């Protein structure tokens, strides 16, 4: 059991946003598979069908996606959150996006009656013009959006950051200043792939975001730097597929981890990682994972 921003999780693993999170049934399946919390697909003001296909490709060492924020919009998603909440005690975090603070507020207010346990603000999607990283690359915009949502809701607000910036710490500090209770790091890394036979980019959107094993070292460095500078907890995400990856992320400074791409291979990844962390703790004589958060920051 761990506690993060007041939420009690049976273990430090969570389903990351965008993966299996478009219906209540698939979120519930992840809770049954052992996730300590689940984050929904990012939800916005208007229904969106997303970018044209191909929108996700497997490179072997990770995935590149440009889904393009497909979602049913907030009025149609409240039932999905309610259906999960009715059937489990596992915390449900609503990921939301918008083009400005007013959009974020409207979506947050629209979803609040479905009783999500926290909001995760998506200011980090790398390929959605006017949304995501268009906001998350600007510390003032992040502060503005975060404080606007914090002003109107009384549940924890987490902010998910992009690694595609010069200084992620400045952005994290802006979110913290504005009242965020946790930082989620990282979203996907800008990337593309080209089909050499046709000579065209593979993705329908031409470029997208890289996730999976290849991004773990990038995520670790972001979490390490954020932990050095912030007081609020950090949730680490990026390339975690084994308990060893999760322990590494926790030692960099994460209080909990989110798992995305690895769910495609095995939905038992949550319980496998949670069990592996527990065994490691027992073997090393630690009482719980909180005791190793940020361990890699020791100098001697
Ligand atoms: O939907 C997407 O294309 C998407 C989103 Br919202 C995001 O936050 N990160 C990502 O890699 N893809």
Structure description:
With 300 residues, this protein is an alpha/beta fold. The protein has one domain (2-299): TIM Barrel, CATH 3.20.20.70. It has helices at residues 24-32, 74-87, 101-111, 133-136, 139-152, 168-177, 216-229, 243-252, 269-284, and strands at residues 2-4, 7-9, 13-15, 37-39, 56-58, 63-65, 92-96, 118-122, 157-161, 182-185, 189-191, 194-195, 200-201, 208-211, 234-237, 254-259. The chain has an eight-stranded parallel beta barrel, surrounded by eight helices. Helix 1 links the parallel strand 3 and strand 4 (37-39). The two termini are 30 Å apart. Ligand RRO is lined by residues 18, 42, 65-69, 122, 124-125, 132, 187-188, 209.
Quick structural summary:
This protein has 300 residues and is α/β, with parallel strands linked by helices.
Q: What order do the helices and strands come in, and which of them pair?
A:
Layout: E1 2-4, E2 7-9, E3 13-15, H1 24-32, E4 37-39, E5 56-58, E6 63-65, H2 74-87, E7 92-96, H3 101-111, E8 118-122, H4 133-136, H5 139-152, E9 157-161, H6 168-177, E10 182-185, E11 189-191, E12 194-195, E13 200-201, E14 208-211, H7 216-229, E15 234-237, H8 243-252, E16 254-259, H9 269-284
Largest beta sheet: strand ordering = 3-4-7-8-9-10-15-16
For CATH, the homologous superfamily is named as: Aldolase class I
Low-confidence stretches: none
Which ligands are bound?
ligand RRO
- Spell out the helices and strands N to C: EEEHEEEHEHEHHEHEEEEEHEHEH
Shape estimate: globular
Let me know the number of strands: 16
């Amino acid at each position: 059991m761990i506690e993060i921003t007041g939420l009690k999780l049976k273990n430090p693993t969570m389903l990351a946003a965008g993966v299996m999170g478009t219906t209540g049934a698939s979120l519930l399946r992840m809770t049954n598979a052992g996730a300590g919390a689940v984050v929904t697909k990012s939800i916005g003001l208007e229904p969106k069908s997303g970018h044209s296909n191909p929108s996700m490709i497997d490179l072997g060492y990770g995935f590149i996606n440009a889904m393009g924020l497909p979602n049913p919009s907030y009025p149609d998603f409240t039932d999905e959150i309610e259906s999960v909440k009715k059937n489990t005690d596992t915390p449900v975090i609503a990921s939301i996006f918008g083009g400005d603070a007013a959009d974020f507020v409207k979506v947050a207010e629209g979803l609040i009656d479905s009783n999500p346990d926290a909001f995760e603000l998506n200011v980090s999607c790398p390929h959605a013009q006017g949304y995501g990283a268009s906001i998350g690359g600007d510390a003032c915009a992040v502060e503005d959006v975060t404080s606007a949502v914090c002003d109107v809701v009384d549940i924890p607000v987490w902010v998910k950051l992009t690694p595609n910036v010069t200084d992620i710490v400045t952005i994290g500090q802006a979110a913290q200043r504005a009242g965020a209770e946790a930082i989620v790091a990282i979203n996907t890394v800008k990337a593309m792939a080209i089909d050499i036979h046709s000579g065209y980019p593979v993705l329908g959107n031409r470029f997208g975001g890289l996730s999976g094993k290849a991004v773990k070292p990038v995520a670790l460095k972001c979490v390490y730097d954020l932990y050095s500078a912030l007081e609020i907890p950090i949730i680490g995400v990026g390339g975690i597929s084994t308990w060893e990856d999760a322990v590494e992320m926790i030692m960099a400074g994460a209080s909990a981890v989110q798992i995305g791409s690895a769910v495609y291979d095995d939905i038992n990844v949550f319980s496998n990682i949670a069990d592996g962390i527990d065994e490691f703790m027992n073997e090393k004589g630690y009482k719980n994972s909180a005791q190793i958060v940020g361990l890699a920051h020791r100098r001697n």
